[in-house]
Amino acid sequence: MNAYLLILIPLVGAALAAVWRGERSRPLLLPIFAAAHAVLVFWMLWHPPEVAANAWLGFDPMARAVLPAVSLLFLACAAYAVSYLRLRAERPNRTFVALLLAILGLLSAGHQARHLGVLWITTEAVTLAAVPLLHFNATPRAFEATWKYLLVGGTGIALSLFGSFCLGYASLHGGGSGDLTFAALMAQGAGLSRAWVLIAWVLLLVGYGTKMGLAPMHTWKPDAYGEAPGIVGAILAGGVTTVAFTAILRVRGVVEAAGQGAVADRTLLAIGLFSLVLAALLVLGSRDFKRMLAYSSVEHMGILVIAAAFGRAGVWAALFHVWSNSLIKGALFLSAGNIRRAAGARTRDEVRGMAAVTPHSAAIFVTGMFAITACPPFGPFFSELRVLRAGIETGHYAATGLLLTGLLFVFFGLTRLVFAIVDGRPRTATKTGEPRVRETAGVIVPPLALLVFSLWLGLATPSVLHEAWTAAVEQILSTR
Amino acid sequence: MSELANLLIGLAMGLNLLALGSSRLPSVIRTVAVQGMALGLLPLVLETRFDWLVALVAVITLLVKGVMIPTLLRRAMRTANIDREMQPVIGFVPSLLLGAAGTIAAVAAARALPLLPEHADTLLVPGALALVFTGFVLLVGRVKAISQVCGYLILENGIYLFGMLLIGSTPLLVESGILLDLTVGIFVIGIIVDRIQRAFDSLDTRKLTVLRE
Prior knowledge:
The structure holds two protein chains of two kinds.
Chain A: H1 2-19, H2 29-46, H3 61-87, H4 94-112, H5 116-134, H6 140-173, H7 182-188, H8 194-212, H9 220-227, H10 230-257, H11 261-285, H12 289-308, H13 311-343, H14 354-357, H15 359-372, H16 379-393, H17 397-422, H18 428-431, H19 441-459, H20 463-476
Chain B: H1 2-21, H2 25-46, H3 52-80, H4 92-112, H5 117-120, H6 124-141, H7 145-163, H8 172-200
């Protein structure tokens, strides 16, 4: 019942926002419904419900391990959105508010989907719901980014549907009933037709990998993150990508049960390392700090799938990293949005000295940058340390070495660009007259809260999360 | 029963080549619509006993693929006031040759795949593979936004055709959810096409090159 409430609460909020008349009061619906969702999801984290084995939707260990992080990120973004939409009072916000809440509901459904078809429908719906958010700024560049997002994302999502059907046929061919629930597919295990499982795995990995933004299917990401408002970037990078990742993990479980786990590990490792290395090179060449965040997101998606290839300890570390990456990405995107608005530009050629213009946002941005490049004592340091340890324990020395090198290059790239825009003397255009954006508490506290939470996550990971992640690993790799 | 199904799939595969070879946008839209309708009839032909739900889904599919989506695309084409030439990146003759080669490869690939005996002598799998391949050729080989959408639709048709393998086991709820998503997707695409037209005064996706790295 509560599992359905998690989906219904935000959807009711979305419906309410769609009919709400007050343009100024409508954004307040966001934090109200986000808070209700967060309270419920954290209550369920501590009191996990029983899920029927054949249920299509349910708050199972996998959902429990990831969904609270998404809810937390969304809550911070929702609080930020109230101030943001007040600053952007010239744009009508009805669609924006309604679709943001709808996305939260659909993300909850996607994380709880235990049926391949339901999973596909929710992922596709999230993709479509995000479209109007991407061109909120209504500039030609935003439309261009939206078109690329639709075309690349749509093709990816079509391939994942193809893959889902192939997995269904693997079950039929193996003498099963073609039941597309993950539980039934895993129970059929080695009975699944080998050739069709492998075809399905490749298609699903490419399909959901496009949604995650793994290289070489990442091409929509820099454009979309660069042109969308900071909140939308944060929710795409920290929320939507995680649904695609859990989808890949769930399918990974089926492939493992079918006895093809080694093949799955090899493909995950290859695509992850390629994403990481490509992202490192792109970060080094980037001059635009919002596009830089997109490349950083490609890098972290790469780390996630690399970790997923490192056995049980690796999957555990990946779930930890989902949390630390989502929270820090939220802080980075929101503070980058503040800097972008104050500076009126996005490249290091036009922006500098932001430490003087927007001291608080710049401080959060720099701290977040150190956190995301795995400097202690924030969450990403500890989760990436676990990924490296899992890599060494499973004997992947070369991959672990390459991972470390990639991280180092990303660190160089990020620090170079971030300090270029933060340091120095403000350009006259941004210095003269009143600052365009005052740093109100509404746009500072949410990213700061995410940073603090990530710090806490790193220093004292709550035992309930340890237990939730272990249970999720057990659900995915029970046969290993 | 299988005869009629093979006939419909064969028709869809022939329409692939028509879509690859046409130089005018309206005729590609019409081709895709006819293809969608041919595939929409399939569940009625494949199902041995009559089922109200299957019939309902088939009728909705026919309406959506044959009437709604083509109407949306034609309206987008009219309001955007684009000229009707296709402007291919991959020329028509090379596209046709590619399509023919892809169809042959699809038949060969389907031979190599392990299939259940009842599917081995139908064109379901080769047809699906050929449609997916053609969709990709159109997606990559055309520059107008609407012709790319047509490529996407052929790709979706191919996947729909593959889904027919599972018609006995996938609940219709899932099928209808997929159909709904597709419709909304095309609707959203229509709106975006309109906005791109207003913003760039053209629907040539080659002009969408500001964001380049």
